[in-house]
Amino acid sequence: MSDELGKVLTEAQDSMQKAINHLENELIKIRAGKANPQMLDGLTVDYYGSPTAMNQVANISVMDARTMTIQPWEKNMLQPIERAIIAANLGVTPQNDGNTIRIFMPPLTEERRREFVKKSNGEGEHTKVAVRNIRRDAIEHIKKIQKQGVSEDLTKEAEKKMQDTTDRYISQIEKHLSSKEKEIMSV
Predict the structure, then answer these.
(1) Burial (0-12, 13-18, 19+ Cβ within 10 Å), 99
(2) CA dist 150 to 5, 10, 140, 145, Å?
(3) What digits encode the pLDDT tens for the residues 151-171?
(4) What does pTM read for this prediction?
């Protein structure tokens, strides 16, 4: 296979892996009834006028399966942290005792579990679309290379490899979604 075709396949595979990594990060943020500090990843707090990641202004720890504590490094950060958690609409209410913020994870109702499954499936669908778009762009690139004089056999082989790679990544997405659904639906 020509170097140019190999490069197209490698770039597409790297992009697909990045899409899978993004899906994994998004699925971590969807709670499954257990306290997980990664739920708060991506939340920003107003730290003296500039948005700052929560884990940079406070220590986040898990006390037990349903309780998370947030210990800010500065006491005056309690209110902004509390506001950020409420604004994030995570389905939890922070409790401020003047020193720390505690978050108690309420047990999930069947309806709420189904909503989380639907949300995780939506994330999976976005990732599948991204993977298919990467495949489409790679195949278009392969066809351009064929017009530049590369043999049709090589380009057909490259297209087949691209489809096989796509199928492999789509099945990985399905595995992630089914394991997340099991995790969410288990009481």
Answers:
(1) exposed
(2) 9, 18, 14, 6
(3) 888 889 999 999 999 999 999
(4) 0.73
